[in-house]
Amino acid sequence: MSGFSSDWLHLRTPYDDAARNKAVLERLRDWRVRQGEIGMLDLGCGTGASLRALAPLLGGRQFWVMADHDPALLKAIPDHTARWAAAAGHAMAGDTVTGKNFSASFAPQQADLSARLDSLPLDGVRLVTASALFDLVSADWLARLVDLCRRHGLGCYAALTYDGRLDWTPVDRLDTDMHALFDQHQRGTKSFGPALGPNAADAAAAAFRAAGFTVETGPSDWQMEAEDRDMQEALLAGYVQAALDIAPDRAGEIEHWRQRRRFAIGAGTSRHRVGHTDLLAVPSA
Ligand SMILES: C[S@@+](CC[C@H](N)C(=O)[O-])C[C@H]1O[C@@H](n2cnc3c(N)ncnc32)[C@H](O)[C@@H]1O
Fold it and tell me: Whose CA is nearest to atom 1 of ligand 1?
């Protein structure tokens, strides 16, 4: 339904976990220790990556409202979380996962966030989280979210927002064109309307600052080395599809670029970096 498969979200997880900006996470932990039991509202939760990345770091008693419009991804949350819990030595019973320093319960919630942002349950919620979501949203929707956070005194942690930086090694003569076509595609109309795409990270920081929040940002780039073949192949397929959607008349050139990039991936000489930005915005004291 959403175009984000459970397999893709699973493939990207280790890259996301390695990429999350440590200084921003430190600020998030500093902020969290000043709260008691806290609720998180995770927007575009997918299969629940934010809970798994943040619950041990946040510590203490937590509950998570996990909102997404895709029922298949929501259905996968308990399974993915149970597998993560087992591997990490946490205990899971029903909708609660308990580790040495935390106890987190979760409630999946099906919602089209483009329409339903203002009617989500906020009782006890102190922090809005979003991972790999902000580049999909529109300027209007971002303004609504900032206003929601301001009215309810909520913090916002938005991780892994694509920020328009891409580079490949070895360099290819068509990289710049393919990058431009990808960014144009990223700015296309998505489920939230015209997407901010590569401008989202800067736009979010500016919007929260203008609303009086204290904002911290930092890079959270994916760095793929020669051995990260599956991830590079998956991204290449996405770039090619995006480029074809925007410029079908350039199908021949795009195919040749794909072949050259695939050859480098297969030969073990390809490295690739995708620029992301993490953001923490908290209401000013
Ligand atoms: C790139 S995925 C990120 C998923 C998850 N946060 C993660 O980091 O693995 C974007 C998510 O946003 C959800 N999404 C996109 N548009 C939405 C909308 N209008 N309402 C609710 N969820 C939406 C998708 O279903 C998908 O789960």
Answer: 132
